[in-house]
Amino acid sequence: MTEQFRPAARRRARHMVLQALYQWQVSKASANEIEAQFLVDNDLSKIDKPYFHEVLHQVPARVNELDAAIAPLLDRALADMTPIELAILRMGTYELMHRVDVPYKVVINEGVELAKSFGATDGHRYVNGVLDKLAVRLRPLEAGHRSRS
């Protein structure tokens, strides 16, 4: 197994991409500018760099698609979400939609852990609820057995 595919390298990449997406949301800088800055300012030698690059570029490129999937599951407007929780939900939604190689349980668990580390006090519960519902909708064969009305 190469370093880039180890769970720890992917987990570290998720931490970094969350910070990069937060910066993208707040600063409105391009993904290319943010990636260049991260390459200079951070040691990315122990992260899954292809994953970091992919998610950092694909979330902004697909933001309308991701937000359309998330919005119906929220109890508030997207604009009222904290930037951290919104970035986590966008990352998780991207993975559920476009990275079927990542099991839905991993997507949810990683999103919850990121929310515990970086989000508001009970943000992890909110992230868990939204990603859980999204997994049932986006991956019905994988997660559908857990479907609730």
UniProtKB/TrEMBL annotation:
Family named by the database record: Belongs to the NusB family.
Residues of the NusB/RsmB/TIM44 domain: 11-135
Its biological purpose: Involved in transcription antitermination. Required for transcription of ribosomal RNA (rRNA) genes. Binds specifically to the boxA antiterminator sequence of the ribosomal RNA (rrn) operons.
Ranges that cross the membrane: none
The keyword Transcription regulation is assigned to this record: yes
Alphabetical list of HAMAP family matching this protein: NusB (MF_00073)
Signal peptide interval: none
Organism: Saccharospirillum mangrovi
Swiss-Prot/TrEMBL keywords: RNA-binding, Transcription, Transcription antitermination, Transcription regulation
Official protein name in the record: Transcription antitermination protein NusB
SUPFAM superfamilies, A to Z: NusB-like (SSF48013)
